[in-house]
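User: I want to check something. If I give you two sequences, will you return the structure for each one separately, not as a complex?

Assistant: Yes, each is folded on its own. Here is the first sequence with its structure:
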Amino acid sequence: MIYLDNSATTKPYPEVIDSFSQVAQQFYGNPSSIHSFGLRSERLLNQARKQAAHLIDVDESEIVFTSGGTEGNNMAIKGIAFAHQNRGKHIITSQIEHPSVLETCRSLEEQGFRVTYLPVNNNGVISPIDLEKAITEETILVSIMHVNNELGTIQPIQEVGQIVSKYPKVFFHVDHVQGFGKISLDFYDCLIDLVTISGHKIHGLRGTGILFVKKGTKISPLFHGGEQENKFRAGTENLASIVSMVKAVRLILEQQQIKSDQLRALSNKLKKSLKTINGIMINTPEKHADHIVNISIPGYKPEVIIHALAEKDIFISTKSACSSKQPDESAILVACGFDKEIRNSGLRISLSYENTIEEIEQFCTELQDVLLQLSGIMR
């Protein structure tokens, strides 16, 4: 099998699964219980939080364990909106955010909030000038993703942070789900208040994640009924998942340090090989996250190519897994101004540190064969 859909989800590391299993079997006491068995779980929870903070280089009080990227984005955006709506109801985001950001913003619009969706250029990058012009006295939050999940575009997060910091009453949230473990981001240096991370994008387990909430940032909790996670997230902590999440964070950061050059070589090899195949257009901009390459093959339905490759045990995708079953047209490619043929035929190839040059070569060979077969059928 050649798996090239790592932006949708990744294969969990064996060590992550082992840590989950061990904790689930040995530390099943409730961390909130006052007996010794519960206190044992509480100590492990505190240790996991401390390790996560050390790895991400933040304070342990700023770590909130979540169920993943969707919850993290909802918690950050709604949390700020509801906690600070008394002084403003304006939110700024971009047109190419993940559905968990866009749909959250749309739900807030139904509740009386106003949202500005910043346009992007042909490379999928927002204009810092547009951002600053959009900020008003009513603005309470700016939410911009670090790495786009379809194109691999990298947003100018540091510049955005500097702009937002000039407005003390405006908070800055970054969806770092696709960037974490691939593109480094200093939360403090970039003046970010909230950051979302997802476990299953970094070879962790589904249902695991972290939300960084900077000290002094007030958010309204989505869940009520307990004082867990610094009162931000009520509910008995899923200790086994939390420990496995921290394990995944450690392992992916080690891989980033050791294999970044290897991932870049894979990406370059992929793009070079794709350029030799007739009819393929590379949509990903020149400057992009190495693990995501977006292409279009005008004249071919994306799902037909995906199914044909799947029969050869090769797996790629079209767009965000959260919207992949929607109509063919990619909203991201629309926002970037691509022609209809391009945006209706988009395909995403997403790599991990586990992929090899041999896999890339075989994928490109098989893709070329699939296109030749399909062109024969179409004739």
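And separately, the second sequence with its own structure:
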Amino acid sequence: MASNWRMFAAVVSVSSLLVGVAACGSGGDGDSLTITANAINSAGGKNAAEAKWIEDWVIPKFVADQQAKGVTVKVKFQATGVADEDYKSRIAKDLKTGTGADVVSLDGIWVGEFAEGEQIKPLNDLVGADKVKAWDGWQHMPDTVQQLTSYNGAQYGIPQETDGRVLFFNRKLFAQAGLPADWQPTSWDQVLEAGRKLKAVPGVTPVQLNAGTSFGEATTTQGILPLLAGTGSTLFENGKWVGNTAKFRAVLDFYRTLYSEKLGDAELQQDAKGREKSFEKFAKGQVGILLESDYFWRGVLDPSAGSFPMTERDTQVGWAKIPAATPGTGVNHQDFVSISGGGGRVISPKSKHVELAWELLQFMNSPEALKELIVGGGPRITARQDVNADALGGDPLLTFISQQILPITSLRPALPEYTQVSKALQQATLDVVTGKSTADAAAAYGKAVTEAVGKDKVASD
């Protein structure tokens, strides 16, 4: 998701006095290569850890790496720290007019929109298919992760980080409810059964499944999309958005069952600060099961630096894969499913220094660079499995997601209409949580999606 991704901005001034730089397309003294992203190295600044990584490690190391090749490079850091939508608007304008950076950090969900607008082009077109294929990093990225910066089968950039969603649960509450400490449900019914047992524990919300519009995109990515994947459907397939289909109605039925039986807190889903409150309740031992990404583990519950630190996190918090509706009915006939987000970097089609930009992209996604990012910025799941295997060994949850979730995960559709469809999805869950029938909520959703994208681009049955 855009808000969760640490981005950076750097300006690289390149001397063109050397033959090596001339080979990269530099034309005269003072030519420069610019990289932009949304990060600022200041106390409390946006994505400060990554900005610091750029200043303290990437810049001197890249300068030295280029010097070893006979190329003199001067690097400057250009800080940015604005709201994600403001950043998106700025780079969209810059890419369209050619006035912006050569290398641009981009949330994966924006790639399709920018590609459709011809603001970015495939790496093969810019760098050459042979050079792109020759980069050894691809072999260490699962296909699902590579898709973070791809669209319609073409690769537009290099992914940097990703995440994955699981079911977190409180082992102490599970013990009180007579549930196992190594719980792994294999169907939606088993999740509901666990919720019914947890309901008997006083003062506990059995299941937190994000719903409604106040949770925003968290409802879509930590609720609807994993469930939809569990029916064997993705949100966009065969050129059409999922509308009022039987599989979508099955998702709404699950929501309706969970909240009508009061296994979840319907009022919390309508609270403007509902997500933060759900985090706090879990940290205090008042929520049994919660569907979230690894951010919940490393950013919310972290005992030393979390927004809602949980002292006994490492012993009390368990996790499980999200089951398909029934075994084998998930996407690609999977037993378990997930949803991932993330982003990476692309090269501006109007860059005058594409080859040098490609060198920098490779450098910043090398094992050495990404390991240093983890050391300086805290645990995170990178796009490279070789890095994850080496650098995440001490974190059981991140290792679990890297090894067992990324190979089975799915991504959000990177299309311009996604935002409108996502809002319609959120409204549909709010409708059933507040008492509307599944049929009526699904019909209203189907109508909203049709109005947003056109009847010929909506599947229904």
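Because they were folded independently, the notes below concern the second chain alone. Residues 1-31 have pLDDT under 50 and may be disordered. The radius of gyration is 23 Å.
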